[in-house]
């Protein structure tokens, strides 16, 4: 029997009609009852998801009691939609009949999917829904490979449901529009990024921040409101609601523009929101990969001075000469890092793996902001002192062991801790997740105006597994983009 507080959270404890399975009660909402095996199935999905998160969370967080939620009338669904005119209609789990992926919907589709934690992708037949009145259907031309695709294909975040068709940097040409579509017509160049649905009624949705909607539907590896799986852009056909479609301006190249739909908005949004977009400011970009290299381009176009902080000394020349960075620090070179301490107004950290944070805090001026957008699968180590006082904890070790050292700091300044102690604090650390649809369109238009695209290596579909291996080795300048239209053969 699987059990976790998250599932109990969604189960109603009281009610006139209720089922009891292994001591968990399920309130019935007056419709047909859920069979015990259906409850178990439903529960397994959610318990698996939350248990994987719990394993990754520190104990204190995972044992916190959740806030009870009021019944919404859909007590058996933990995440019911609050509007009904959306892309798909909510269907209770009782009414769902398991179908093969190619039989779920009327439109035949073909792509490549990961089947297990090896992350290896292979050909996969599935289906897309018929174009509904507010839907746009398009033929996929190109799809970028984001490091998130790799995290997800290998289940590194512990939430993947297989088969998984990745891809959320998708561009193509419109082939069909629903009767109520207003902004797009057949033949338009369009794109889809990381999400394809949201509730439209929460505060985030009202603020054009669908990306922070608690019911946001990811482009792949998630569930539509009808319970069917979302599949991404490593495939020949997309169908999505108009609200989640981005217009690609004519002067933006489709292959090199595709990565902007995730990498672009993920760095553009925090530059704007955290006020790191003011001419004359000095911003650090940590990790010169898919996200990092477009962060440099956007920040430069905003008039910001940019320092790249990288583990790869061999990227220095291209960072400065091709991408326009003002300076380059090798993060593993302590001398270089010390010489730049206290110089940055903000940092956009795009690193995909666990990495030391203290040296980054020490690069910030007082009141500086460090924004995490990279999503390593393991927790980052965080010392409080560099944030609150601008110094690392080790200075206190120095203070207790060699108290005179501080008084004579000028005579012995070789250790990082004492140098960072010279800097004042009140630093902030934050995070950011893609961007809302309005801002995504704004970013694409800004990119078109300033000639910003990704540096890409266009590859055939059957190269995708090799490409994933090369991404892990940092062997790509700077984004792989799959030529879906020409190379995806059923
Ligand atoms: N927040 C969001 O909304 C959002 C959206 C998209 C992606 N992401 C996440 O952002 C991260 C980056 O994605 P990406 O597509 O840009 O990945 P990427 O192209 O692989 O770039 C990541 C860069 O991080 C650096 N790096 C890798 N391993 C490192 C290590 N062990 N220590 C220090 N630096 C290391 C490398 O840069 P150097 O060689 O310069 O050191 C590498 O090029 C991923 O975790 C992805 O899932 C988040
Ligand atoms: Zn992405
Ligand atoms: Zn919402």
Automatic annotation (TrEMBL):
<keyword id="KW-0479">Metal-binding</keyword>
<dbReference type="InterPro" id="IPR013149">
    <property type="entry name" value="ADH-like_C"/>
</dbReference>
<keyword id="KW-0520">NAD</keyword>
<keyword id="KW-1133">Transmembrane helix</keyword>
<dbReference type="GO" id="GO:0009809">
    <property type="term" value="P:lignin biosynthetic process"/>
</dbReference>
<dbReference type="GO" id="GO:0008270">
    <property type="term" value="F:zinc ion binding"/>
</dbReference>
<keyword id="KW-0862">Zinc</keyword>
<dbReference type="InterPro" id="IPR002328">
    <property type="entry name" value="ADH_Zn_CS"/>
</dbReference>
<comment type="function">
    <text>Oxidizes mannitol to mannose. Provides the initial step by which translocated mannitol is committed to central metabolism and, by regulating mannitol pool size, is important in regulating salt tolerance at the cellular level.</text>
</comment>
<dbReference type="GO" id="GO:0046029">
    <property type="term" value="F:mannitol dehydrogenase activity"/>
</dbReference>
<feature type="domain" description="Enoyl reductase (ER)">
    <location>
        <begin position="119"/>
        <end position="388"/>
    </location>
</feature>
<dbReference type="InterPro" id="IPR020843">
    <property type="entry name" value="ER"/>
</dbReference>
<dbReference type="InterPro" id="IPR013154">
    <property type="entry name" value="ADH-like_N"/>
</dbReference>
<feature type="transmembrane region" description="Helical">
    <location>
        <begin position="382"/>
        <end position="401"/>
    </location>
</feature>
<keyword id="KW-0472">Membrane</keyword>
<dbReference type="Pfam" id="PF00107">
    <property type="entry name" value="ADH_zinc_N"/>
</dbReference>
<feature type="region of interest" description="Disordered">
    <location>
        <begin position="58"/>
        <end position="88"/>
    </location>
</feature>
<keyword id="KW-0560">Oxidoreductase</keyword>
<protein>
    <recommendedName>
        <fullName>mannitol dehydrogenase</fullName>
        <ecNumber>1.1.1.255</ecNumber>
    </recommendedName>
</protein>
<dbReference type="InterPro" id="IPR047109">
    <property type="entry name" value="CAD-like"/>
</dbReference>
<dbReference type="Pfam" id="PF08240">
    <property type="entry name" value="ADH_N"/>
</dbReference>
<comment type="similarity">
    <text>Belongs to the zinc-containing alcohol dehydrogenase family.</text>
</comment>
<keyword id="KW-0812">Transmembrane</keyword>
